[in-house]
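Q: Okay, next protein. This is O-antigen ligase domain-containing protein from Gordonibacter urolithinfaciens. I've checked the sequence twice, so it should be correct. Can you predict the 3D structure?
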Amino acid sequence: MCIYIAHVLWTGGFALDVSSCFCLSLLLLLKKRKQEVIDLLFLGVVLFSPMAVGGEMTQAAIRLVCLVFYFAKSKENVFHYGMFAVLAIVIACFIVPFAPFGDLGLDANTSWRISYWRDELDQLLATYGMGVGYGTSYASYGFIGSATSGPFAATAQYSTLEKMYVVGCHNSFISMAFRLGVAGVSLLLTYILSLASRKRSHREDFASSACFAVISSLIIICFNVGFESPAYFFLFAFSVSYLNSTATLREAAICSVEADRGRRSDATNSAGLGGAEALSRHGVIPKAAERVRTRFRCHLAAKVM
């Protein structure tokens, strides 16, 4: 709550941007206490605060994910279903641009993004799925046209031609496929899906916050310039590292517990053995028997002589 107040004082308004909404939701799930009234008040701030201009749909999705993780009883199931839902959304982003949307009445922002995705996917297909590599523009000349208005319009900082190298298509998965080809984006998706198979921390609040962070950051990079924007890329890198750390700590704790159980089991088995069996296990009886056999051989040899 103090962080939200500081945000209001710093920005001079109650509206949250995407990064602020992400951080507040993460803190809510990470520091969830037994004071339900305070937590519910914090949740109300996250859910009902005004949204800053830009990324409204992304922020609405983040708030919904936070709400689900807050009340869900099985956080692990929610995480698995959420990861596969994100995968379905990513696949849809590669299919939707080729569908006819002329008569659906989409708003200008949505239509522009879908058209831009189509432009990059067309360029990807022209390379037979290999990707165009780096050092080239994002958009094609045919897509931007004269660009007297919109995202590619010239500004005091960039000309229209320069913006072709600056303005991304607002979908990091398509951008990666555009640059590194189908193989590059497939490797990224394989790594992301591997996160779903790792064990989460035994601390329920710690696990829910890490799982929320990963799913929300995937939503962010799916509809924004996630890898091109330092702020959004930091959220993604932090979230993946955060979840990996919880899984690694959990796995280390499990190995430590199993090793401790093994040592206790060996000690218990040794204590429960009979006297002769215990002496035999520790090599006492075999050594004594060997000494007896040696003395018996010496005694027989002395008699023969």
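A: Here is a summary of the prediction. DSSP finds 13 helices and no strands in the chain. Residues 255-304 form one domain.
Q: Noted. On to the next one.
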